[in-house]
From TrEMBL:
Residues 30-129 form the PPM-type phosphatase domain. This is PPM-type phosphatase domain-containing protein. It holds the Pfam family PP2C. InterPro entries: PP2C_BS, PPM-type-like_dom_sf, PPM-type_phosphatase-like_dom. It is a peripheral membrane protein. One of its GO terms (molecular function) is metal ion binding. It comes from Octactis speculum. PROSITE patterns: PPM_1, PPM_2. Keywords: Hydrolase, Metal-binding, Protein phosphatase. Gene3D superfamilies: PPM-type phosphatase domain (3.60.40.10). It comes from the Eukaryota. It is found in: Membrane. One of its GO terms (cellular component) is membrane.
Amino acid sequence: RLATKTMGSLLDTPNTDFIHSADGQENDLVYGVSSMQGWRTEMEDAHTIKPSISVLPDHSFFAVFDGHGGDFSAHFAAQHLYHCFLRRFEFKIYIDSSPPVSNRYLSMLTSFYSNLNISEMVSIFAEGS
């Protein structure tokens, strides 16, 4: 039996099984990632793990993306945001973290929406993702 809330379908009780995704040690870091489905009917979150960045030695990229009622945008961001960073000239030269992350985020959003047609957009917004 499902309960419906404002952002999609929910389970009556949360699925608290942890899914072990990855762990490792690289770039002087020890890291681990696990996920839990929780109250949602399916896993909606995604993540990106890049313990070392070839153009920026001694730097890493870790990100978690929350689906908020659907998995499409979380998976899109997990697949594309890191590459958006790498394509930006400002990121490659890494001068005082300028311009701010918001410009890179907007670049990723532009790419996200340019890859959708109207019916896909309606579907995504209906899901809440």
